[in-house]
Design a protein that fits this description.
heterodimer, A: 632 residues, ABC transporter transmembrane region fold, Rossmann fold, four-stranded antiparallel β-sheet, 21 helices, elongated, B: 598 residues, alpha/beta, 10 strands
Chain lengths: 632, 598
């Protein structure tokens, strides 16, 4: 079997975060660096004001450290500054300017970090998701996955760029300002320090309470939102059963309950904010009174007092934010785990083709290196049985057939007979299980094989396989871009000539002519602006421009009327050339000219042969044929 | 849509604000008091410096502390009340707006729902309302506090020292100009970010819902590259936004420091000369530092107000939308309205339906889809409506249900114009089964009872048996108490279909409207559905938008719709003989049908 590309597994939350942080960590480091300069600048100014108030404006001796003393004396002593007070003001402004520049840089780098982080995370998620096997996509809800890729990513980003960063900054600020305060007055600084743990703890307490209340409110909001959603999507049912009153009562009841819960939360929040204010004011009072006492007994100067008050104001807000970091952490942890679920899902085999030559090189080439020539050979299904993962109903039972190279094979079958499953196995949307993986009953269970030109499809790198097999789905998905971009989406470049030819074969040219913007018409999300038939024809054109050696039509003209169907089939004959074609349809007229037709029923081949042979046999095919052609 | 509303649309919101008007005015008063207290607190520090410290005394410090604590208690009571009440007012306005929007939606006609997507309407009910409540309560309080704080500080500074106050005040217009300059840029940038964000979410959606096509086409690389383009653009725009926001923040703090240094320079000078006391200088410094931030906050609020215009506008459009199908006053007086039905005046409905010279055009269309159409449907008749997808098969059904009203002519129910009785009366007598069955989250029982709230379990089981849906419920773990999930997610399409039949049957309507499903369903359920349809239309006037041969062939009357118009009608035999459009349609239906019909 093929070697698979080693995919990183994230065994811990930290490993995932570290992986996503690649490329953004340095910005965060720079941000913290500048943040600390900002703190320093913020702390410097009160110090300058202290000296100014005490010694320049007042008459205290200068109590500054040695180097400042030297500087001041060199300039001409305190009296020089007294007559040139603008110099002090300029110094304050200069330091503020340094602070402003660094504040700008710290915010910018934080944003660079955050955005780089988000970019890397989203890119990794997207690239990973499109490479996950189709089975994974069928198992998971679209809404849930999108939720993870958007709001969970946002939660983690905010936690890192705001909560975690502010944790660093605040701790730094507290430590530095305590040092500054200590130098002014030890006793007062200790009184100040006493308040910090109290505030942090109360903040943690409240945030925990708020967090729990928020969860409850969130759930109720979800319920309210779904009531509205269901009422709107089911508006016909509501009206037809005349249940407006019931709906109204239901919505208003939930709305009232939800609002009451919010009232309660609002009460907690208001208490928290108020208590925060009380702490800050009380702290200010304690510092003021103690400061006064220390000033009166002479251990503190007026300037020192003023500086102290500034420091006090500086740290009060950030400290209150600390509690939030701790409570947000649990939210972020949940989000990280939700992303880990996606990132740890196993990708399909390597989807990049290495090398461009005929020979596929690199780790993906199977043990028996294949050549592109194989796609010109027969497609052989040999004893294929298949059960969808996680189900117990076997959908295909021992199916064998050959689609000879260059010929057209028709497949007729009712809904649920296994047609689409056959095709999904051929281009490996679902994998045939390996022999070795068969159930452990000891009896080797034969699950069959599919080969193209003699090469087992499991030995062909996935992208090669899928690029050589053109397939039109019954419900093709168009991407939100222009019609031309949609038709050429699987090609590197398409000329206008090729576009025109494909469109004309697919009977899309008239439609395009009718559109105001022609090929540049934007098809909207999932191609909503086009009708089902137009989408199918666009998908046919999309396949034709690829010139693949194998072409598959999975009931690809079901939404096209019989007349157009015939026209397209006629035009396509020349386009197909020597490609091998698999044609699945409900309509016998579509299959009539196939070289061989197989009739699938309940996962088994019930009949096979040419149109004439099948008619002669007088089985299901004949019955369907009669119904579809009989005169009333 | 984008026309400017006068006064930011606030007058239109008045009916929702008025109930809380007194409270809001009271809170404005309290907000002013609180900002006054904030202006007074620095004076304590200045008194401490000039009195206690300068005179080296602790005399009167007890009163000082008591006064301080007293003011604090008052202010915090004030704050707490404001914060709590402000939140409550916000939430109450949100709630009232949501109720109003939701209730109004229950009365709007289907043309509104056809013109607006569910997602769009849902956003009006849930998110626009929330934004408006926040604006009215919090933003208003914010502005009140900030404006009065600035006013108090300016007055205080003027009274302390007019000259020094002047030096601080000359910085105010500079700050306003700078903030306006950046805010203008930021509004546009925030808008861009939201747009790119929506694009990225759309990309995720495409990558997930389009997984099959992406794999079949092997375009993982290409799609991923395009995704990267958008995330890169997102990064660039976000960082650019932060660049502007950070400039703004830095400049505002720098200006605050400029005010501080101005006070230090000029104030220091006059303090040296003895004109000013040191305490007063310190109070000036704290005012100078704090006066610019509130300006920033006011301007941010203004830009929020501008960006919220759209939300107010859209919500008001919804609330002012007039239903084009509504009961007249006279009818309402007898029958009651949709929320307060007067059931004692309701007469029973027999099920005769007739179209009298009906001409109809959809309100948003410009072509007549029915012109002088006449049809008698005596009670108990089964009418099948056939035609291609999108041909307009639902038009008749919409008229019978009075989801739309004829442009000209009349639809008679039991011989009387449908408009002469209430919508609710009609709807209570009509059963409607949708092509895509819609269940509500809740238990199976709740869903089945939707059309008959007082149905007993026995009746429910009877209805389930009648449509052979009993096996579906029996195999469920909790039977009737099983939760069906949002939109009935936990059930298969076939199961939902059967349950919606049982729901319709339980309501025992005289007229039944049924839109047959085209979706492919497994063989066993398909057979059950066929039988169920035969059961529920028996003995009732029924209109079936038919996709199944058995339903069409067995109908009393077949209406053939082509390009929105009824082109043929008659029995199957009659129509086949004319060899018209029905004939070719019938052939096509056979081709497209599943084989169980054969």
């Amino acid at each position: 079997m093929n070697q698979k590309k080693r995919q990183i597994q994230f065994h811990t939350k930290a490993s995932l975060v570290i992986y996503f942080l690649k490329g953004s960590l340095r910005y965060f480091v720079l941000s913290i660096l500048f943040a600390s300069i900002v703190s320093l600048a913020d702390l410097m100014n009160p110090k300058i004001i202290e000296y100014t108030v005490d010694s320049v404006i007042g008459r205290e001796p200068l109590a500054a450290p040695g180097f400042v003393q030297k500087l001041v004396n060199g300039a001409g002593g305190v009296s020089f500054f007294r007559s040139h007070l603008w110099l002090v003001a300029l110094l304050v402004l200069g330091i503020a300017l340094l602070g402003a520049v660094c504040r700008y840089l710290f915010m910018l780098f934080d944003s660079l970090g955050a955005e780089t982080f988000v970019q890397k995370t989203r890119d990794s998620l997207f690239a990973h998701i499109v490479r996950l096997p189709y089975a994974w996509h069928s198992e998971n809800h679209t809404g849930d996955i999108i939720q993870r890729c958007t709001s969970d990513v946002e939660t983690i980003k905010l936690f890192i760029s705001e909560q975690l960063m502010s944790l660093f900054r605040v701790v730094l600020l507290i430590v530095m300002s305590l040092v500054f305060m200590m130098r002014i007055h030890t006793g007062l600084a200790l009184a100040e320090a006493f308040f910090i743990p109290v505030m942090v703890l109360s903040s943690v307490f409240f945030h925990n309470k708020v967090g729990a209340a928020f969860e409850k409110v969130d759930r109720e909001e979800g319920k309210l939102s779904s009531i509205a959603q269901e009422n709107l999507t089911g508006v016909r049912v509501v009206r037809a059963f005349g249940r407006e009153q019931f709906e109204q009562e239901r919505f208003m009841r939930q709305n009232a309950g939800y609002t009451d819960l919010w009232y309660h939360l609002q009460f907690i929040l208001a208490s928290f904010w108020t208590s925060g204010n009380v702490y800050a004011t009380v702290r200010n009072l304690v510092v003021t009174v103690l400061g006064v006492l220390f000033c009166v007994n002479g251990s503190l100067t007026a300037g020192g007092f003023i500086a102290f008050l500034s420091y006090n104001a500086l740290i009060s807000l950030p400290v209150r934010g600390l509690g939030r970091v701790i409570t947000e952490m649990s939210k972020a942890e949940i989000s990280i785990d939700r992303l880990r679920y996606i990132m740890n899902a196993e990708e399909e085999q390597e989807t990049e083709i290495r090398g461009t030559g005929e020979e596929v090189s690199g780790i993906n080439a199977g043990p028996d290196s294949f050549t592109y020539d194989c796609f010109r050979g027969d497609i052989v299904f040999s004893h294929v049985s298949f059960t969808y993962p996680g189900r117990d109903h076997e959908i295909l039972h021992d199916v064998s057939f050959t689609a000879p190279a260059g010929k057209t094979l028709g497949i007729l079958g009712a809904t649920g007979s296994g047609k689409t499953t056959l095709l999904s196995l051929l281009n490996r949307l679902y994998e045939l299980p390996d022999l070795t993986e068969a159930d452990g009953t000891g009896v080797p269970e034969y699950r069959g094989s599919i080969t193209i030109g003699g090469t087992d499809i499991r030995d062909i790198p996935l992208p090669v396989l899928r690029r050589q097999i053109g397939m039109v789905l019954q419900e093709p998905y168009l991407f939100s871009r222009s019609l031309a971009d949609n038709i050429g989406i699987a090609c590197d470049s398409v000329t206008q000539q090729e576009l025109d030819r494909a469109a004309s074969v697919a009977c899309l040219d008239e439609t395009i002519d009718h559109m105001a913007r022609g090929y540049d018409t934007f098809v909207g999300e999932r191609g909503v602006t086009l009708s089902g038939g137009q989408r199918q024809r666009a998908a046919i054109a999309q396949m034709l421009v690829r010139h693949t050696p194998v072409m598959i039509f999975d009931d690809a003209l079901s939404a096209v009327d019989a007349e157009t169907d015939a026209k397209i089939r006629q035009a396509m004959k020349e386009q197909i050339g020597d490609a091998t074609v698999l044609l699945v349809s409900h309509r016998i007229t579509t299959l009539i000219h196939a070289d061989e037709i197989i009739v699938l029923e309940a996962g088994k081949i019930a009949e096979r042969g040419t149109h004439e042979e099948l008619l002669a046999a007088g089985g299901i095919y004949t019955r369907v044929y009669e119904l579809q052609t009989r005169e009333a | 849509m984008n026309k400017k509303l006068p006064l930011f649309g606030i007058p239109k919101l008045m009916p929702f604000i008025r109930p809380y008007g007194k409270k809001l005015i009271f809170m404005i008063g309290l907000g002013i008091l609180s900002s006054l207290a904030d202006t007074i607190f620095p004076l304590f520090n200045s008194y401490a410096i000039d009195h206690f410290i300068a005179q080296r005394t602790t005399r009167g410090i007890v009163y000082f502390v008591l006064l301080y604590l007293g003011l604090m208690v008052l202010q915090e009571l004030d704050n707490f009340y404001c914060l709590y009440q402000c939140g409550k007012v916000e939430l109450s306005i949100d709630r009232d707006l949501r109720n109003a929007a939701f209730n109004h939606l229950q009365t709007l006609s289907f043309s509104y729902f056809n013109q607006h997507s569910v997602g769009y309407i849902h956003a009006r009910v849930m998110s626009d309302t929330a934004k408006i409540g926040e604006l009215v309560a919090w933003r208003m309080m914010d502005v009140v506090w900030n404006v009065s704080y600035i006013a108090c500080v300016l007055m205080m500074m003027l009274s302390l020292n007019a000259r020094l106050a002047f030096y601080v005040m000359i910085l105010v217009p500079v700050a306003v100009a700078v903030i306006l300059f950046f805010e203008r840029k930021l509004v546009g940038l925030y808008h861009q970010i939201r747009e790119i964000n929506a694009k990225i979410t759309g990309n995720f959606n495409e990558g997930i819902t389009g997984a099959r096509s992406i794999k079949v086409l092997a375009i993982e690389e290409k799609i991923t590259d395009e995704f990267r383009y958008d995330t890169a653009r997102m990064r660039k725009t976000s960082v650019n936004t932060t660049h502007q926001a950070a400039m703004l923040t830095s400049v505002v703090t720098l200006l605050s420091s400029a005010a501080l240094s101005m006070v230090l320079w000029r104030g220091g000078w006059i303090t040296i000369q003895g004109v000013l006391k040191i305490g007063t200088l310190s109070v000036f410094m704290s005012y100078a530092v704090g006066v610019l931030e509130p300006i920033h906050s006011i301007i941010t609020t203004l830009s929020t107000l501008i960006s919220i215009q759209v939300n107010i506008d859209r919500l008001m459009h919804l609330l002012e939308e007039v239903s084009d199908v509504a009961d007249t006053k006279e009818v309402q007086e007898i029958y009651g309205d949709s929320f307060h039905p007067d059931r004692k005046n309701w007469e029973p409905l027999n099920g005769d339906v007739s179209f009298r010279d009906v001409t109809f055009r959809y309100p948003d269309g410009d072509e007549y889809v029915l012109e002088h159409f006449n049809l008698e449907v005596p009670q108990g008749t089964n009418v099948a409506i056939v035609g291609e997808t999108g041909a307009g098969k639902s038009t008749l059904v919409n008229l019978v249900c009075r989801f739309y009203e004829p442009t000209e002519g009349q639809v008679l129910i039991d011989g009387k114009d449908a408009r002469s009785r209430s919508l609710l009366w009609l709807h209570s007598n009509i059963g409607y089964v949708l092509q895509t069955p819609h269940l509500f989250s809740g238990t199976v029982r709740e869903n089945l009872r939707y059309g008959k709230p007082d149905a007993s379990d026995q009746e429910i089981w009877q209805a389930l048996k009648a449509v052979s849906a009993d096996f579906v419920v029996e195999k469920m773990k909790h039977g009737l108490d099983t939760e069906v999930g949002e939109g009935g997610d936990m059930l298969s399409t076939g199961e939902k279909q059967l349950l919606s039949f049982a729901r319709a049957l339980l309501a025992d309507p005289r007229i039944l409207v049924l839109d047959e499903a085209t979706a492919s369903i497994d063989t066993v359920t398909e057979k059950a559905i066929q039988d169920a349809i035969a059961t529920i239309i028996r003995g009732r006037t029924s209109f079936v938008i038919a996709h199944r041969l058995s339903t069409v062939v067995g109908a009393d009357t077949i209406l053939v719709v082509r390009d929105g118009k009824i082109t043929e009608h008659g029995t199957h035999r009659e129509l086949m003989q004319t060899r018209g459009y029905y004939y070719s349609l019938y052939r096509q239906q056979i081709e497209g049908s599943d084989w169980h019909d054969l």
